[in-house]
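A further point concerns the way the authors explain their paired sequence and structure data. For illustration, here is how one protein appears when written out as sequence plus structure tokens:
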Amino acid sequence: MIDENLKNQLSTYLGNLRRPITVKGRLDQSERSDKTRDLLETLRAASSLVTIELEAGPSHERALGAPSQRRPSFTIRENGEPERVEFAGLPLGHELGSLILALLHVGGHPPKEAEEVLQAVRSLQGPFHFETYFSQSCQNCPDVVQAFNTMAALNPNITHVAIDGASFQSEVNERQVMAVPSVFMNGEPFFQGRKELAEIVALLDDQVGAKAAESLREKDVFDVLVVGGGPAGASAAVYAARKGIKTGVVVDRFGGQVQDTLAIENYVSVLETDGPRLSRAFEAHVAAYPVDVMKHQRAQALRGGKLIEVDLESGVTLKARSVVLATGARYRDMNVPGEAEYRTRGVTYCPHCDGPLFKGKRVAVIGGGNSGVEAAIDLAGIVEHVTLVEFTDRLKADGVLLDKLNSLSNIEVFTSSQVKEVVGDGQKVTALRVEDRANGESRDIPVAGVFVQIGLLPNTGWLQGSVELSKFGEIVVGAKGETSVPGVYAAGDATNTPYKQIIIAAGDGAKAALGAFEHLMRSAPEAA
């Protein structure tokens, strides 16, 4: 299960343990427990500071409180302390890093987070018991799992169990978990989707958000303010900072849509990587320069002028002599009845993240381009049956993907078909209503999940009336990335630049930053 190279890496990582820890496994007679036992023995061999205890018993999936009685599961605790950090199922795939960090943080190795955030975690009163459902193929889950593990390691009022949804299917069905990461707090739904530690703490303590907003109000005027942290925003920030000018970045999350990309094999000079890894590289590159990064912030309005103003959702207004807009894009909705109602309750946009939750069920994929066909192929290995629905009269994916699609017996394709409605029972998706565009006939296709893969929309709604937008909502830019507003530049998937690719967005970001710098050189300085 774990090769020799990874075993050696584990020994290196666990060399950073500062105090003894105990890992207690709760196992049964299943194959999953055998694999869990193998993993725990690997941890025992990796460090003399790790003690392994094993407890056998009957299979039982869920009991509120910590530790739970799910099997297989294991807890991690500092010797002499109660059990507060737990994994149910196997934390492999994207979650292996979460396991390593949990061991280190419980073992006294300090988390790499801002001290004010860590202090806010220590101050939370609780008691809080969190349960996070993840899948090993989910790129967004580790941030959430690691955040709650850190909280539990630091605060005795907090416990957390990370649950592999594919390993506890009946529990997933009972709680109607249809998207990951899904978090429960004290037995009740808390939130779904990706969040970082600071965001979670702000949900639990209103004062944290207020303090963050107050610190933003004290910011001086920026020479260049970049809005967005995907490949275009990161590139713009690096190029601006290298000019020696005061550079700021307003970003909700670094990476943007790149975070949701599983495999990247066409970013020149990087033979193979994945979205989360490349996103971390973007963030690290920006951090290597004196850039003022303001994370977990969303822009909501822009006003041009001698000093350009950007209003944030937190109520703060930032000022800059030039701005680079790099807000990227988001998944396109179908805009049919039932879609919004059943979002995260069967309607989803990430087959890699949520596919394992639909193991053995029937699902539909909407879209016949590369993304849709790739999703259908991936899901076919997990679910009982996939129905692929395409609006036009033929699939538009690459030939190699179509060959693979046609070789799979549990995929059915409907072309010239229009989705009319997502049908549900009030709690979850039960069917997809599709109309044949050739004869107008309508049919209900029984499915438990609908994976929407029909392209992207630019994140530019907040710019309506501020800068010129195309009929598709894209920011109209010139040869240097300039927009219709003097001093405002734009780059990446939010613009009308053709071919939405990571490498093109990064190049656009560099070009826009250089355009903004040229604008500053030709403009007289303005006082705040």
Q: What stands out?
A: The CA atoms of residues 212 and 426 lie 39 Å apart.
